[in-house]
């Protein structure tokens, strides 16, 4: 008799345990659905976009839409922190400045949305944050901070499990096949898993997977092409090692035509003694995350060191640690959160998705279960498919 491959079943399968997938699994399981979370390696693994201890949580966006979404996301973070009893966002505040960041416009938007903020002159800001050489007016947001990405993923996975979800590590999905009752998920090693509905949250691996998901071609044609960057970040020590001044560093976003940079206290990854600094979209572009090699470019390191010398006099311009991370960007930097025939696609990255994680988990659960809709801007596949009807 031939041996049967063991086959599991589940109401919902979520693919990928980064910030997006773990949030979706948590929210689906919390609503009482049967969930299996399939992860290629382990949650928040070092090759994903959700590893490490530092992502910026900020309200400042040039459109009220996203600023308001952050406001909504904050209640999800408060809920998660209170359930797990751990601080996941360190509220250090944020400064936004630079000729092309337009702090005054950001301040107007935060005013509209009802978020506490202050517009400071450059000299006034230098007095408050002596480590930064501000070159324009500055938007200060006291409610911003640093998200511990890895701790957040682990907390959401733990919550999903607490509500009955099954989590399968080392389960790389190869393809999804449509069946009479839903879908059969195939692993690269031949294992299978049956389910009624699927949420795909594969981060930078999505471009590679998209053609193997049994999605209608009209839907796929609407999904914009992704740019997958291997970003690089460097940890620089604080020049002043007095604990109070080390704790006083905010997160920052500095935009000028020739260089866009962001930085934040690096937390655990940086041994709590330095600022993580990066050039925005300074990394090489790949077809998908499987092409990453984790190698930091010497030219990028040099550019960031020169930036620190000019604009961050409160740091010693010699990095003591460095890392790479994957940005999966759409042309407009809007997220994809779309659904067709029981398959929900989540691509909430474009380098700014971490701060929305609990909210995106709720929105994905709404969409996947049909409980509610999501903003149309997140649904380009459905829009394209409807035009073909
Ligand atoms: C350098 C950097 C800085 C950032 N800074 C900020 C910031 O300051 N503020 C902010 O809000 N956001 C920031 N972001 C964005 C944020 O980190 C991402 O939005 C978020 O981590 C994306 O999570 P994800 O779950 O979509 O992807 P990922 O974290 O990559 O998760 C995808 C998961 O799917 C798994 N997977 C892939 N393929 C398969 C498969 N076939 N089968 C099973 N599992 C699979 C992967 O192993 C991975 O665990 C930053 C990102 C980077 C890289």
UniProtKB/TrEMBL annotation:
Recite the UniProt keywords alphabetically. Answer: FAD, Flavoprotein, Oxidoreductase
- State whether keyword Chloroplast applies: no
* Domain FAD dependent oxidoreductase: start-end pairs: 12-367
Q: What are its cofactors?
A: FAD
Q: Which SUPFAM superfamilies match?
A: FAD-linked reductases, C-terminal domain, FAD/NAD(P)-binding domain
Top-rank taxon, per record:
Bacteria
Q: Which residues form the signal peptide?
A: none
UniProt-recorded name of the protein: FAD-dependent oxidoreductase
Species whose genome carries this gene: Paeniglutamicibacter terrestris
């Amino acid at each position: 008799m031939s041996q049967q491959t063991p086959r599991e079943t589940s109401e919902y399968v979520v693919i990928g345990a980064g910030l997006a997938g773990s949030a979706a699994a948590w929210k689906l399981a919390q609503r009482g659905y049967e969930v299996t979370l399939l992860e290629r390696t382990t949650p928040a693994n070092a090759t994903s976009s959700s590893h490490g201890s530092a992502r910026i949580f900020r309200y400042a966006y040039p459109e009220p839409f996203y600023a308001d979404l952050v406001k909504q996301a904050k209640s999800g973070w408060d809920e998660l922190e209170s359930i797990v009893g751990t601080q996941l966002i360190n509220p250090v505040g944020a400064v936004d400045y630079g000729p092309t960041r337009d702090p005054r416009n950001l301040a107007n938007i935060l005013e509209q949305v009802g978020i506490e903020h202050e517009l400071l002159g450059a000299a006034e800001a230098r007095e408050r944050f002596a480590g930064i050489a501000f070159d324009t007016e500055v938007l200060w947001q006291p409610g911003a901070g640093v998200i511990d990405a890895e701790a957040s993923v682990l907390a959401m996975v733990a919550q999903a499990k607490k509500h009955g979800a099954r989590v399968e590590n080392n389960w790389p999905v190869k393809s999804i096949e449509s069946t009479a009752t839903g879908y059969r998920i195939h692993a690269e090693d031949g294992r299978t898993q049956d389910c009624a509905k699927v949420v795909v949250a594969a981060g930078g691996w999505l471009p590679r997977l998209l053609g193997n998901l049994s999605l209608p071609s009209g839907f796929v044609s609407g999904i914009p092409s992704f740019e997958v960057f291997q970003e690089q970040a460097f940890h620089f020590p604080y020049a002043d090692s007095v604990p109070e001044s080390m704790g006083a560093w905010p997160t920052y976003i500095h935009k000028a035509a020739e260089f866009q940079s962001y930085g934040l206290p690096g937390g655990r990854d940086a041994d709590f003694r330095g600022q993580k600094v990066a050039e925005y979209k300074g990394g090489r572009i790949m077809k998908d995350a499987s092409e990453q090699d984790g190698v930091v470019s010497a030219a990028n390191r040099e550019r960031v060191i020169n930036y620190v010398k000019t604009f961050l006099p409160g740091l010693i311009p010699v990095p003591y640690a460095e890392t790479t991370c994957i940005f999966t960007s759409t042309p407009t930097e809007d997220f994809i959160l779309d659904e067709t025939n029981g398959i929900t696609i989540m691509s909430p990255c474009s380098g700014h998705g971490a701060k929305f994680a609990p909210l995106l988990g709720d929105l994905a659960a709404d969409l996947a279960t049909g409980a509610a809709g999501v903003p149309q801007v997140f649904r380009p596949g459905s829009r394209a498919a409807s035009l073909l009807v």
